[in-house]
Specification:
Blueprint lengths: L2 H21 L5 H8 L3 H9 L5 H27 L3 E4 L2 E4 L1 H20 L6 E6 L6 H14 L2 E4 L2 E4 L4 H11 L5 E6 L5 H8 L2
Antiparallel strand pairs: 1-2, 3-5, 3-6, 4-5
Helix pairs in contact: 1-3, 2-4, 4-7, 5-6, 5-7
């Protein structure tokens, strides 16, 4: 680590400690996650933003912490229901989880009729090697059956929270490292998507 790099790191830590001191009383659990789970990349990013952009930094960090928090909750719920099994930091789907996947697909699709839209898009992206072509086709079928719309090849979108379904898909297909799940606030051609989802 160079001296300049180390100095930047120290300055960022001092800055974050000052922020923690000023804001500690008004922070909720997710906001505390933001401060506690910031990676060095987050901190370095903060130094690259101007003082006017600090709010943007906190917004991005808050979104990342929220996603980590929701994912952790989804995994805990699935584990408590004995749908997935955790061991040594790894996850695997149980026989019960495989059996329940079909009803989870149905519940996810029903969100389109019963759940008000929160103005966020859920994106699933996968890059599955050809040797797993049959599993890749199964992932596509599950997403389509769940009500997802294909944006591009291997890029699918849905307007409601579906973290648990995606976690089950990842573990059922055993292709977790090839499948990414994310949340977007804005996307091009949104009007056509709203029309497609009737929202």
């Amino acid at each position: 680590m160079t001296l300049a790099y180390a100095a930047t790191y120290v300055n960022v830590i001092v800055f974050m400690n000052q922020v923690r001191g000023r804001r500690h009383r008004c922070l909720g659990s997710i906001e505390q996650d933001v401060l506690e789970e910031l990676t060095f990349g987050d901190l370095l990013y903060a130094t690259l933003l101007s003082a006017r952009s600090t709010r943007q930094f906190y917004k991005l960090a808050h979104e990342r912490a929220t996603h980590r928090y929701r994912r952790r909750l989804a995994i805990e719920r699935l584990s408590n229901l004995n749908y997935i099994h955790t061991y040594g930091g790894r996850l695997s789907i149980t026989a019960r989880g495989r059996a329940i996947l079909g009803s989870t697909i149905g519940k996810t699709r029903k969100l389109l009729e019963t759940q008000p839209w929160d103005h966020r898009w859920r994106i699933v992206v996968f890059d599955i090697p050809e040797k797993y072509a049959s599993l890749r086709d199964r992932v596509r079928k599950i997403l389509k059956k769940s009500g997802f719309v294909k944006l591009q090849q291997s890029v699918w979108i849905f307007p409601h929270d579906c973290e648990e379904l995606i976690q089950l898909i990842k573990e059922e297909s055993r292709l977790s490292k090839y499948i990414l799940y994310g949340v977007l606030e804005r996307i091009e051609n949104e009007r056509a998507l709203k029309k497609s989802f009737r929202i």
